[in-house]
Design goal:
The complex is a heterodimer of chains A (135) and B (77). By secondary structure, chain A is an alpha+beta fold. Chain A has three helices and nine strands. The longest helix of chain A has 19 residues, at 50-68. The model of chain A has no long low-confidence stretch (mean pLDDT 96). Chain B has 77 residues and is an alpha+beta fold. Chain B has one domain (2-71): Ubiquitin-like (UB roll), CATH 3.10.20. Chain B has a five-stranded mixed beta sheet with strand order 2-1-5-3-4. In chain B, strand 3 (48-51) and strand 4 (54-55) form a beta hairpin. The N and C termini of chain B lie far apart (34 Å). The mean pLDDT of chain B is 95. The chains are: A alpha+beta (135), B alpha+beta (77). At the A-B interface, strand 4, helix 2, helix 3 and strand 8 of A face helix 1 and strand 4 of B.
Chain lengths: 135, 77
């Protein structure tokens, strides 16, 4: 499952990851942190190029499934304005063993941050800016 | 004619999420030249270009009706 949604439904993510051949599920959930660069963050706003983002997410999903022989891989990203503490991205995998599950899950989030056309705007108490990723 | 979609910081700087270019563009490189002349304040070297939803290189050709996206550094997650 790859999706761009208004609200992340963790039950749906979990249900999609369930598989009888899996001995474990590894899930990473990204949430809105209340600070950035020593400033207080109030909200994040996410913009996406939906059609291309979904294609890029599928590429990452398929690469991970093949490389680590996963049963399932899920990437869900939220769009719109999100407040402190809210989930903004969920990536997860189900695999026979944890040895494959952990690195595969990390791969999903690392690759998403490199290639998927999604943009984050940070809102502070006094201003806002589009985030440039740190190299 | 090609359709251009702009996102994030580029969208704000251009002032439009979508616009069309009527001029004929041979490839991505000529599009970059056109955009650089039209919007000189944007730091184009950090902006990726996608053609029909795939990341494109300078030498990739452009065709009538292509959907172009201007992709500033991504920051999802």
């Amino acid at each position: 499952m790859v999706e761009i949604v208004e609200q992340i439904d963790l039950n749906k993510v979990y249900k999609d990851l369930m598989h009888p051949a899996a001995g474990g599920i590894c899930l990473f959930l990204g949430t809105v942190r209340d600070n950035s660069q020593d400033k207080k963050v109030t909200d994040l706003f996410f913009e996406t190029y939906d059609e291309m983002a979904l294609l890029e997410m599928e590429k990452i999903q398929h690469t991970a499934i093949e490389k680590w022989h996963l049963e399932k891989a899920v990437i869900v990203h939220a769009v719109g304005k999100k407040s402190v503490g809210e989930p903004v991205v969920a990536v997860g995998v189900s695999a026979a063993h944890r040895k494959e599950a952990f690195p595969a899950c990390q791969f999903l989030i690392d690759e998403l941050k490199k290639t998927v056309p999604i943009w984050k705007k940070e809102y502070f108490t006094d201003n806002s800016h589009w985030v440039s990723p740190t190299p | 004619m090609v359709l251009i979609k702009a996102f994030g910081k580029v969208k704000e700087e251009v002032g439009l999420g979508e616009f069309r270019i009527e001029e004929e563009m041979r490839n991505v490189k000529s599009l970059r030249k056109y955009l650089g002349d039209k919007y000189p304040t944007i730091q184009w070297s950090s902006v990726a270009i996608a053609v029909n939803k795939q990341y494109a290189e300078d030498q990739d050709p452009l065709h009538q009706g292509d959907e172009i996206a201007l992709i500033p550094p991504v920051s999802g997650g």
